[in-house]
């Protein structure tokens, strides 16, 4: 099989298998539908990736910064759960919008990968959600339900 066909074939199998998992039963027509939906989804994936030529390369050193992430998620879950009680009593109490210095604003592939990594890892814990990046001011804009100083950002 030519090398270019391996990735689309894997996508077709994975997306077809996802359909079968969601269908909850395996019959001949479900298999036909799984293959058809897998092919349609694969064609969509190939069309998007060939048009945009994404090349998101994650630096292996960034992965070390994922180590504290599970603990941060657990802590933020506790912070959010603790904040729910007062929010029920005082519904006008709001979260805060903040900005922090973020100098990864060049339009290079490396900076695009860093931005995607920081946004994904920073928004994973439930207390903080990245809203966007101010390229001119070189700041990362985010919302916190409960204000915490020095937001943890990677890399």
Would you mind describing this structure in some detail?
The protein is of the alpha+beta class. The protein has 2 domains: 3-52; 60-144, no CATH class. The protein has 4 helices and 3 strands. It has helices at 3-23, 28-52, 69-89, 109-122; strands at residues 96-101, 128-134, 139-144. The chain has a 3-stranded antiparallel sheet, with helices on one face. The protein is extended. The two termini are 39 Å apart.
Secondary structure: elements and pairs:
Layout: H1 3-23, H2 28-52, H3 69-89, E1 96-101, H4 109-122, E2 128-134, E3 139-144
Antiparallel strand pairs: 1-3, 2-3
List the defining traits of the structure above.
single chain, 155 residues, alpha+beta, 2 domains, 3 strands
Rounded average pLDDT: 80
Low-pLDDT stretches: none
Strand content: 5-15%
Describe the global form: extended
Number of domains: 2
Largest sheet: 3 strands, antiparallel
Strand order of the largest sheet: 1-3-2
Termini separation comes to: 39 Å
Q: How helix-rich are the residues, as a percent range? A: 40-55%
| Alpha-beta content class | alpha+beta
What is the CA-based Rg, rounded?
Answer: 21 Å
Number of helices: 4
State the total count of DSSP E strands: 3
What is the chain-wise order of helices and strands? HHHEHEE
